[in-house]
Design goal:
The complex is a heterotrimer. Chain A is an alpha+beta fold. Chain A contains 12 helices and 8 strands. Chain A folds into 2 domains: 65 residues, Orthogonal Bundle (3-methyladenine DNA Glycosylase II, Chain A, domain 3); 190 residues, Alpha-Beta Plaits (2-Layer Sandwich), CATH 3.30.70.20. In chain A, the strands form 4 sheets. A two-stranded antiparallel sheet of chain A has the order 1-4. Chain A has a two-stranded antiparallel ribbon with strand order 2-3. In chain A, strands 5-8 form a two-stranded antiparallel sheet. In chain A, helix 2 runs antiparallel to helix 4. Chain A is elongated, with a radius of gyration of 26 Å. Chain B has one domain. In chain B, 61% of the residues lie in helices and 2% in strands. Chain B is built from 8 helices and 2 strands. In chain B, strand 1 and strand 2 form a beta hairpin. In chain B, helix 3 runs antiparallel to helix 7 and helix 4 crosses helix 6. Chain B is globular. The two termini of chain B are 33 Å apart. Chain C has one domain. The chains are: A alpha+beta, B mainly alpha, C mainly alpha. Chains B and C meet through helix 2, helix 4 and helix 8 of B and helix 2, helix 4, helix 6, helix 7 and helix 9 of C.
Chain lengths: 293, 224, 191
C-alpha cells in the first residue's frame, strides 16, 4: 500500500522535475508578443496575408519591420489595429477588399460547345477544350472556388459563382484556384470594374458573347487619370489610383465603353446605359458605393 | 432534471458513440468478436467514464489549464487500474478475453474526449448524466456489433447456439477484416438514416457533413 | 538473424498494429486524408515508440517488478509516455527546429495514441528482452506508417471518384481498411 503510493508519488515527482528542468534547459527564446498576436488573429490560416498561416504571420510581423500590421484582410481593421498595437507598428491601411467575378456569361448567353460530363470540378473541366463554354474566360460553374473558400462566402447559381459580400473576407483563397483566372481581388470601395476578363480579340468575343469585353481600349484612352491599362491582354484598372483620383472624371470610362462591360460597381442587373448613368448619380450622392458581385 | 435527462439521452441515440461520434474505435473493433465481450467492455467503460466525468467536473476549477490533459489522463488511469483489479478479481475469463484493451481504456478517446468536451466545462450532475448516457450508448453499440459478428461468424448469441448443425459460419466476420467492414457498413447505414431524415425535412444532406474524427477533439489537445 | 527477420515481417504485416491488432484507429482514420500528413504522423509514431518502449521496459523490470507493484503498470506507463512526449517536444524545439516544425504538430496527439501504450504493454506480456522490445517497437511503428500511407494514398484517389453520399469519409475508409487487412493477413503464410 505505502510502497505503491510512494512509487507513484516518486515517479510523478521525477517526471515533473525532469520536465521543469527541461523547460529551462530547452527554453527557446520566443517573443511573447508573437503568441499574443497569434491569439488576436482569426486563426483560420487562410493565407490571405501571404504567409503560411496565422502563426507564421504573427512571427513575421514581430521579426520583420517591413511586414505591415495590416495584412490580415480576414480580420479587417479591428484586428489590424490590435496587431499594430501589439507589434508597436502603425496599422497600415488594410483597405477592405472583396473577391470579384469578372464574368457575366448569363447576360451574354454564351453558347455551349458541347455537353461536359466529366468530373464535377473546374480544374478537370478546363482540361477538356478549355471548358464546355464557347468562351474560355467564362465561369466554369463547378465551384472549385466555392470549395477553396473557408468562409462559406461563395455559392453557385445558374452555373455562375456568386460572392456573398457579407461573408467574403478577401483572403484570396479563391483567386488562384480558378483555372480561367476570372476572379480578382478589388477594393470594396472600387468605383468601376470590367465585368469580363476575356483576352480574346474583338471578333472572337463578338461571336460568342454579347456581354464580353472586345478589348477596344476606348476606356484606356478616355481615363483622365490613366489608371486603366491593357498590359496583360485584358483591361486592368488600378483601383488604388482610381480611388485616389476621385470622382472628378465623372466615370468617363463607363461612358466610353461601347458594350457596357465597364460599369459602375453600384450598378446591378442587366446593363442599360441610362441605368448606369442614374446609378452613377446615386452613387455620388451616397458617396459610399458598395461592391456588388 | 430535464437538463440531466437531455444530457443522458443524447448519448443513447443522437450522439451515440462510436456510431455517431467517432469515439473509441479501437476497442469497438477489437473486442466485438462476441456479444459477451462487447457488453463486458462496455460496462468497464461506463464505470470509468461516469466516474472520471464526475471527478474531473468536481475539480475542473482547480486544474490549471496548461496541465489539464495530464490531470485527465492521471484520473482516468487511476480508475482504469481499479477496473483492472476488479475484473481480475471477479470476471477473470472476461479480463483475459479483452486482453490489453482493458488497460487501453486510459487512452480511449471517449474518456478524454468527454472530459475535454463536456466534463471540463459543466457541473457535476450534468457530467455524470453525460458520462452514463455516453457509456450506455457505447455499451449498446458494442453489444450490437458483437452480437452481429457473433451470430454471423459463429452462429451463436451470448454463447448459445442459434442454428442447427447445418449452419456454416462466416469466419470472415470474426476476423479482423470483418470488424472493419461491418463497422464501416453500420456507419454508412447510420449516415443513410440521417440523409433520409434531412431529405424528408427538405434540407440538403450535404449541408450536414457526416461526423468524422473531429468529434474526439484529441487533435485539439495539448494546444491551448 | 532469421528470428529478427520473421519478427519484422510479423510486426509489419501479419500482426499489423492497425489492421490486425486494431490499435491506433483514431490517427489511422483521422490523419489519412493526405499523404504528407500521414508520413509525418507515421514518422512521429515510430520515433516516440522507439523511445517509449525501452523506457517503460526499464521501469517495469527495474522498478515495478522488484517492488511487487505490477498492477500499477498502466498508470505508470501512461504517465511516463505523457511526460516523455512533452520532453521530446521541448527537446526537438530547441535542438532540431526543422524536425520540430515537421513532426511537432503530431507529437501532442501521440500521448493519446493507444498504439504507443499498446506496444509498451504488449512487449511486457510477451516478455521480450530489452533489445527485442525496442526492435519490436520499431517494426510495429513501421507497420503503422505503412498502413497509414497506403490508406492515405487510396483515400486521395477516392476523393475524386463517385461514392454514395452515405459511404463518404469514415465508412469508406473502414471498408478499405477491411480489404487491406485481408491482404495483410495473406502474409501469415510466410511465417
Amino acid at each position: 500500500m505505502l510502497t505503491s503510493v510512494l512509487t507513484l508519488l516518486a515517479l510523478g515527482f521525477i517526471a515533473s522535475v525532469v520536465l521543469a528542468v527541461a523547460s529551462r534547459v530547452f527554453y527557446v527564446e520566443e517573443d511573447p508578443r508573437v503568441e499574443a498576436i497569434a491569439e488576436v488573429l482569426p486563426g483560420a490560416n487562410c493565407g490571405g496575408c501571404g504567409f503560411a498561416g496565422c502563426d507564421a504571420y504573427a512571427a513575421a510581423v514581430i521579426q520583420d519591420s517591413a511586414v505591415s500590421a495590416g495584412l490580415c484582410c480576414a480580420g479587417g481593421p479591428e484586428v489590424a489595429a490590435k496587431v499594430a498595437d501589439l507589434a508597436g507598428k502603425a496599422a497600415g491601411n488594410a483597405e477592405p477588399q472583396i473577391s470579384f467575378r469578372r464574368c457575366v456569361k448569363d447576360q451574354g448567353k454564351v453558347q455551349k460547345k458541347f455537353e461536359y460530363q466529366g468530373l464535377p470540378s473546374c480544374a478537370a473541366a478546363a482540361q477538356v477544350e478549355n471548358g464546355a463554354d464557347a468562351c474560355k474566360f467564362s465561369c466554369l460553374g463547378f465551384g472549385d472556388c466555392v470549395k477553396a473558400c473557408g468562409f462559406g462566402a461563395m455559392y453557385i447559381e445558374n452555373d455562375l459563382v456568386q460572392i456573398d459580400p457579407d461573408k467574403c473576407v478577401a483572403c484570396g483563397a479563391c483567386i488562384n484556384v480558378c483555372p480561367n483566372a476570372i476572379l480578382e481581388m478589388i477594393p470594396r470601395r472600387a468605383r468601376v470594374q470590367v465585368f469580363c476578363s476575356t483576352k480574346d480579340k474583338m471578333k472572337d468575343v463578338m461571336n460568342v458573347c454579347e456581354a464580353g469585353c472586345i478589348n477596344c481600349g476606348k476606356c484606356v484612352k478616355k481615363c483622365p487619370a490613366g489608371v486603366i491599362s491593357q498590359a496583360e491582354g485584358n483591361i486592368h484598372i488600378d483601383h488604388a489610383a482610381c480611388l485616389a483620383y476621385g470622382p472628378d472624371c465623372e466615370e468617363a470610362c463607363v461612358d466610353a465603353c461601347p458594350r457596357n462591360i465597364l460599369r459602375m460597381m453600384c450598378h446591378k442587373g442587366a446593363a442599360v446605359k441610362a441605368d448606369a448613368a442614374a446609378a452613377a448619380a446615386a452613387a455620388k450622392a451616397a458617396e459610399t458605393p458598395q461592391a456588388n458581385a | 432534471m430535464a437538463s440531466m435527462w437531455k444530457e443522458f439521452s443524447k448519448g443513447l441515440w443522437a450522439e451515440i458513440p462510436p456510431f455517431r461520434l467517432m469515439l473509441g474505435l479501437c476497442p469497438t473493433l477489437a473486442v466485438t468478436k462476441s456479444a459477451n465481450n462487447g457488453l463486458g467492455m462496455g460496462l468497464a467503460v461506463i464505470f470509468v467514464l461516469a466516474l472520471s466525468n464526475a471527478v474531473i467536473s468536481l475539480i475542473r476549477n482547480i486544474i490549471p489549464k496548461k496541465v489539464r490533459i495530464a490531470c485527465y489522463i492521471a484520473i482516468a488511469a487511476s480508475l482504469v487500474v481499479a477496473v483492472e483489479l476488479l475484473m481480475q478479481a471477479y470476471t477473470y475469463p472476461l479480463y483475459q478475453q479483452l486482453g490489453i484493451f482493458v488497460p487501453l481504456i486510459v487512452v480511449n478517446c471517449i474518456i478524454l474526449g468527454r472530459a475535454e468536451a463536456f466534463a471540463g466545462k459543466n457541473p457535476v450532475h450534468l457530467s455524470i448524466a453525460d458520462g452514463l448516457g455516453m457509456g450506455i450508448g457505447f455499451t449498446m453499440s458494442l453489444t450490437f456489433l458483437g452480437a452481429l459478428r457473433e451470430v454471423l461468424g459463429y452462429g451463436t448469441l451470448f454463447g448459445h447456439g442459434l442454428f442447427g448443425p447445418d449452419f456454416h459460419p462466416v469466419h470472415f466476420m470474426v476476423e479482423a477484416p470483418g470488424a472493419f467492414v461491418s463497422l464501416g457498413l453500420i456507419l454508412a447505414g447510420m449516415n443513410l438514416l440521417s440523409i433520409r431524415k434531412a431529405l424528408r425535412r427538405g434540407e440538403n444532406p450535404a449541408d450536414n457533413p457526416m461526423p468524422g474524427c473531429e468529434s474526439c477533439r484529441g487533435c485539439a489537445m495539448g494546444r491551448d | 538473424m532469421m528470428e529478427y527477420f520473421l519478427l519484422l515481417i510479423s510486426a509489419v504485416f501479419v500482426n499489423n498494429v492497425v489492421l490486425a491488432q486494431y490499435l491506433g484507429q483514431c490517427p489511422y482514420l483521422g490523419c489519412s486524408k493526405e499523404k504528407g500528413v500521414s508520413i509525418g504522423m507515421g514518422a512521429a509514431v515510430i520515433f516516440v515508440m522507439i523511445l517509449a518502449t525501452p523506457i517503460t521496459w526499464l521501469i517495469q523490470y527495474k522498478v515495478l517488478v522488484p517492488l511487487g507493484l505490477d498492477y500499477l503498470q498502466t498508470i505508470m506507463f501512461i504517465l511516463v509516455i505523457a511526460a516523455l512526449v512533452q520532453l521530446v517536444e521541448m527537446f526537438l524545439k530547441k535542438a532540431v527546429p526543422p524536425l520540430y516544425s515537421s513532426l511537432g504538430i503530431f507529437l501532442p496527439l501521440i500521448t493519446t495514441n493507444c498504439a504507443v501504450l499498446g506496444v509498451a504493454i504488449v512487449v511486457q506480456r510477451e516478455s521480450f528482452d530489452l533489445g527485442t522490445s525496442t526492435y519490436y517497437a520499431f517494426a510495429t511503428g513501421l507497420g503503422f506508417m505503412l498502413a497509414l500511407i497506403l490508406l492515405a494514398s487510396i483515400r486521395e484517389r477516392l476523393e475524386i471518384s463517385r461514392l454514395p453520399l452515405s459511404m463518404k469519409g469514415v465508412p469508406a475508409a473502414l471498408v478499405l481498411a477491411g480489404i487491406m487487412s485481408m491482404s495483410f493477413m495473406a502474409f501469415a503464410g510466410m511465417i
